[in-house]
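Loading example: each entry is read as two labelled lines plus one structure line.
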Amino acid sequence: MIMIFGKPLMLLYGQLTLGLINGSFYALLSLGLAVIFGLLNIINFAHGALFMLGAFVTWGLLQYLGIGYWAALVIAPLVLGVFGVVLERFLIRRLYGLDHLYGLLLTFGCALVIEGLMRNNFGSSGVPYAIPSALQGPLNLGFMVLPRYRAWVVLAAAAMCLVTWLLIERTRLGATLRAATENAPLVQAFGVNVPRLITLTYGAGCALAAFAGVLAAPMNSVNPNMGSNLIIVVFATVVIGGMGSILGSIITGFGLGIIEGITKVYYPEGSATVVFVVMVIVLLLRPAGLFGKAA
Amino acid sequence: MLHVAGLNAWYGESHILQGVEFTVAEGEVVTLLGRNGAGKSTTLKSIMGLVASRSGSAKFRGVETVGMRSDRIARAGVALCPEERGIFAGLNVTENLLLPPVVAPGGLDLDTLYTLFPNLKERARSQGTRLSGGEQQMLAIARILRTGARLLMLDEPTEGLAPVIVQQIGRTIREIKQRGFTVLLVEQNFRFAATVADRHYVMEHGRVIDMIPNAELASSMDKLHDYLGV
């Protein structure tokens, strides 16, 4: 058996893959947070709840309407995007004149309410969701075998990150978004409907969280706590990557997943905390984050 | 084209504009002169809808803009080139140039803009804020010439720039006047203003206190020195 630093290579491969999968979710979720933070300057604590709702919508579509996974991949983000638009339009918008802390408190409250309602309706143990038939079974890569669905998650997340990045960095709409992040009043004075841009950006961020939720639905059970379990690490990702940095979120998300995976091989006890150790080190050395611009 | 009457504006508790009155006719180049803090920039920002607290009247082509949101005012055909230039660091030169949406036909096309400002073409891919001060000012002016806005408000476009650049901006203003644009210019430098403007309004303590046609500028020098304290 091939050994790397005293550990079997297969074990390392296995944990690296698992790390990449976790990293996919960190990247997708912190990407949405970064987009929202950049323009709205609020830390969207509801992000984990929206991720969870995305998974539940996926489940509900199949359970009640017989609509399967592939359609859910489009429908759930749309549904939660609209949900986000409503949330922004009627609640979050009222807080723009106030300290950012209020936005954080409001979205945190929303997350608690949403999770409470879901727990009340579905219990804490959650409901199962089957892997779509086309993605069942193993995939032999030659050097290792991994479940087909996991490979799909990594590819789909990476593709979505790439599309989002291209949209923001390489299109007119993205340029307007970046400009509004820098100086919203001036962009509005050029004739751009900035309030609408903000609403749609929030909706798009929510849709990204829901997309991650759809990907997550067949992985474990769909349960009301799946968002809050994940979101703490995602916030650490955002802090490490640099608040509001798009590329930073993507790279940091995947990177942290891999670091977690490696830690699981060499020092399993540390795998749950390694992300936060990295966060502390980054905060001490580069308070603005690895990819953030100093304020 | 622009009728400002009894325009008031506040920053918090400070009453900055206290009943500003002036008019600008279609095709004119008009300047607002005055000392620092007289309210010139605030007047432009108020017309653009960038000052939250304002009252009175600023009619553009007969439409009241006080109370309108700034994006609506822009869509009506008013554009501002702010004093700090407002070039976006996160956007390259081309992205900066293409940022403001076209609000009406009749703006200058890219080829014309690149003829007027060749530097912008050479540095198309550079980060906006990497340009020299003069180039940034060119970019800030070119940006609003594209949109088809008919009233262009330029806030101290020559501030801190080398004489050769100031001359180029002067040529640009005369060029856009020839093309039928209306320009409202805030200037500290009245010698520069004299080379481009039809009329000058003098502001003091948040009010317009005098109007001097450009032809009478030479004979009004004593008065003007008195107003501006130069």
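Chain A is about 70% helix and 5% strand.
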